[in-house]
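Incident log, entry 3
Record: Phosphoribosyltransferase (171 residues)
Problem: checksum mismatch between cached and fresh output.
Input:
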Amino acid sequence: MSTKKTLILNKEQIKQKSRRIAYQILEDNFEEKAIVLVGIADRGYVFAQRLQNILLEIAPEKEIQLIKVTIEKNKRNLEADTDTPVDIAKNSVVIIVDDVLNSGRTLAYALGVFINVPLKKMRTAVLIDRSHHIFPIFSDYYGTKLSTILKEHVEVVLEEFDKEEDAAWLS
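Fresh output:
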């Protein structure tokens, strides 16, 4: 594997794309009083926290709830835990948030957590969509779509989690 890293998004671009995604979520759900963001641990949750903060800033009248879902990505069966009971999403708009969409497996697992919860609608939001979908999962809101080869790796660095300046790298 190549050791060369190419910068995809810098700190300012991540900030701009995050704001744009928040505005798209707001526009798509302008009639809703509440929205539930479901962040996939770890970086997806950090990204969901950022979206929550932006949404509360631009639409303080809305209730923006946050659920953290931790998924065992290497298991063949769905194994997931949440930090909040999923019933708070009942009859609400739910947006599953992750940093990178690659095959769609992680988002599919996160969707599965809510399979028995009656929802108004469910959407997905990602910072980077790699377009290598194996599962029929697509991003409703995304920062950037990126055509890559399967051998390439996309790494998102978020300051709150990685203790380094925000960036997205292709290697």
